[in-house]
Specification:
By secondary structure, the chain is α/β, with parallel strands linked by helices. Helix content is 46%, strand content 23%.
């Protein structure tokens, strides 16, 4: 049994999703969005850090996974996204969690079956996989996708007998 916190980082909206895995079953525990306010990036990063720290205290996850930064057309946006990821990663490592990261393509492939899936397809599959009464917000659905991708990746590694390695960041003290 494991509780996994998935994060879809953003400097304005950071999605989170929490699932509990028991054997081959994944149960929905919670999801939502941390919506930052203000024009000062440092203050928004603090809000992300504080919000994720509170989610970690509330749900007590044993595993943490986050979407990897992709290089967008706008370098400034990519830098802000990287900083939002950093705030989330620091919250996780401060709580003693190991951080795993996945590309958007890996996440979409794990959830929908194709790395080129649309956000609406991810929302639909998350709703079906976790038996939710309605589709979660797009950023929350993406975060749940990160958590499910982490679970499926770990299951694949176990089935392969640990022959592959998972890219993680260790605990920092």
């Amino acid at each position: 049994m494991a509780i996994i916190l998935g994060i879809d980082p953003g400097s304005r909206i950071t999605g989170y999703g929490v699932i509990k895995c028991q054997g081959r079953q994944q149960l929905y525990l919670g999801s939502g969005c941390i919506r930052t306010s203000g024009d000062n990036l440092a203050e928004r990063l603090q809000q992300i850090f504080t919000g994720i720290s509170e989610i970690i205290r509330q749900y007590q996850p044993e595993q943490f996974a986050i979407e990897r930064v992709f290089m967008a057309k706008n370098a400034d946006s990519a830098l802000k996204l990287g900083q939002a990821r950093g705030a989330a990663i620091v919250a996780a490592t401060n709580a003693g969690l190991t951080v795993a990261e996945y590309s958007a393509t890996q996440i979409k492939s794990a959830v929908v079956g194709t790395g080129r899936a649309q956000k609406s397809q991810v929302q639909h599959m998350i709703t079906q996989m976790l038996k939710l009464p309605s589709a979660p917000q797009a950023d929350a659905a993406d975060a749940l996708g990160v958590a499910l991708c982490h679970y499926h990746t770990n299951q694949s590694l176990v089935a392969m007998g640990g022959k592959a390695t998972l890219r993680t960041y260790g605990r920092y003290k």
